[in-house]
UniProtKB/TrEMBL annotation:
Matching InterPro entries: TM_pro_TauE-like (IPR002781)
Descriptive protein name: Probable membrane transporter protein
Membrane topology field: Multi-pass membrane protein
Keyword tags: Cell membrane, Membrane, Transmembrane, Transmembrane helix
Location(s), subcellular: Cell membrane; Membrane
Lineage: Bacteria, Bacillati, Actinomycetota, Actinomycetes, Kineosporiales
Length: 246
């Protein structure tokens, strides 16, 4: 039986951030996909998204520090501009929606993102000038709704056919300023000190455990795990929203 006093929340936060950080280090993606739905479920929509974005930004800095020479800065900028421009309008449009509706939208957005990445489908227009605009715009909207900026830009990177390390480095260079802009608009997380400490511990545990293994474990295998966990988290969000709305 789940304790009604919320004493289980720090453990959920630690677990979510630990698994998500490890997935990001090993595969170059997945922190927000895994942690976002679980943090929203544990802390509520507002604080869950804010904490997910804040932790993502810290991890962006860590990963970028060792890979900045591989970044395709022009592509990162072309993704960032449309994403950043949509952060504030998305926040203003969703600020007055009920939490259940935002949870439902976030869960659906994660499922759509998982489906896009898992499908491996390619579209020719993504390789043209509209590609980075559409990917960045979709990423910016999802980052506000669910702290999940990765799926649209991961699809864009897959179309480019870059080496895995180049794609990972470029995604960090794109996501770092976007997360900073998003956090500036949403505000800092107002989670309790114990929850913030749990998030920090989880980040250290996940990063520390995965770092020595990042060249030994197949990124493809980790990506499958990331998508499975993200799907489970999204379904939990949708179930929670349905329970509140019905």
């Amino acid at each position: 039986m789940i304790p009604p006093d919320g004493s289980w929340l720090p453990a959920v936060v630690v677990l979510a951030v630990t698994v998500a950080a490890a997935a990001q280090v090993l595969s170059g993606m997945g922190f927000a996909l895994v942690a976002g739905p679980l943090l929203v479920l544990a802390l509520g929509t507002s604080d869950g998204v804010r904490l997910s974005v804040a932790m993502s930004m810290v991890l962006n800095v860590v990963l970028l520090a060792g890979s900045h020479r591989l970044v395709r800065w022009g592509d990162a900028a072309r993704l960032f501009v449309p994403a950043a421009l949509l952060v504030t309008p998305t926040f203003l449009l969703t600020a007055h929606l009920a939490g259940a509706w935002i949870s439902a939208a976030a869960g659906a957005a994660v499922l759509v993102g998982v489906g896009l990445i898992a499908s491996g489908r390619r579209a020719r227009w993504v390789d043209g000038p509209a590609g980075p605009v559409a990917a960045g715009a979709g990423s910016g909207v999802l980052n506000v709704l669910a702290g999940v900026s990765g799926p649209p830009v991961a699809l864009f990177v897959a179309h480019r056919g870059w080496a895995p390390r180049v794609g990972t480095a470029t995604l960090q260079a794109y996501a770092l300023p976007l997360n900073a802009v998003t956090l500036a608009v949403l505000g800092l997380p107002a989670a309790q000190p114990g929850q913030l400490l749990g998030a920090a511990v989880g980040l250290l545990l996940g990063t520390g455990a995965a770092w020595p293994l990042r060249r030994r474990i197949s990124a493809a295998g980790v990506r499958v795990l990331v998508l499975a966990l993200a799907t489970a988290g999204a379904l939990l969000l949708l179930a929670r929203a349905a329970g509140e709305l019905l």
